[in-house]
Amino acid sequence: MPERKIRVLAAKPGLDGHDRGIKVICAALRDAGMEVIYTGLRQTPEQIVSAAIQEDVDVIAMSCLSGAHDYLFPRVTELLKEKNVEDILVLGGGIIPEEDVPSLKAAGIADIFTPGATTSEIINFIKANIKRN
């Protein structure tokens, strides 16, 4: 029986309307053999978590360029904890100041990928860190 593909939910939380970067990431993950579900623009943390659970994903990859990452990303991890979901790897990316990264990681974001990160880095990180059995 073939192993199930890694399933990734890609999301743009908040009011950020810039989606070129997340679409590039989605294409790269798909080309790497992953199943990618893109939720589209302006998703609430509640919508993201609900979709992730419904789609039985291994990874939530969020992109934020609006500056609201310090609220939106941790809110997703809070909601996952409230629902006792512990097996989803949560990643963030976008225009995120380096000084914000430690608090985001402390809130449960596995890693942050900022401009300059390669798609290979993201793919390798996912493969090395997914939490499924």
TrEMBL record:
| Keyword Metal-binding on entry | yes
Q: Please indicate which superkingdom the organism of origin belongs to.
A: Bacteria
Write down a Pfam family by its short name: B12-binding
Give cofactor(s), names only.
adenosylcob(III)alamin
Q: Which UniProt keywords apply?
A: Cobalamin, Cobalt, Isomerase, Metal-binding
Extract the PROSITE patterns matched here: B12_BINDING
Q: Which Gene3D superfamilies match?
A: Cobalamin-binding domain
Q: Which GO terms describe its molecular function?
A: cobalamin binding; isomerase activity; metal ion binding
Q: Which SUPFAM superfamilies match?
A: Cobalamin (vitamin B12)-binding domain (SSF52242)
Q: Domain B12-binding spans what residues?
A: 5-133
Indicate yes or no for the key word Acetylation: no
| Membrane-spanning ranges | none
Which InterPro entries does the entry link to? Answer: Acid_CoA_mut_C, Cobalamin-bd, Cobalamin-bd_sf
Q: Which NCBIfam families match?
A: acid_CoA_mut_C (TIGR00640)
Write the protein's name: Methylmalonyl-CoA mutase domain protein
The organism named in the record is: Desulfobacca acetoxidans (strain ATCC 700848 / DSM 11109 / ASRB2)
Traced from the root, the source organism's taxonomic lineage reads: Bacteria, Pseudomonadati, Thermodesulfobacteriota, Desulfobaccia, Desulfobaccales
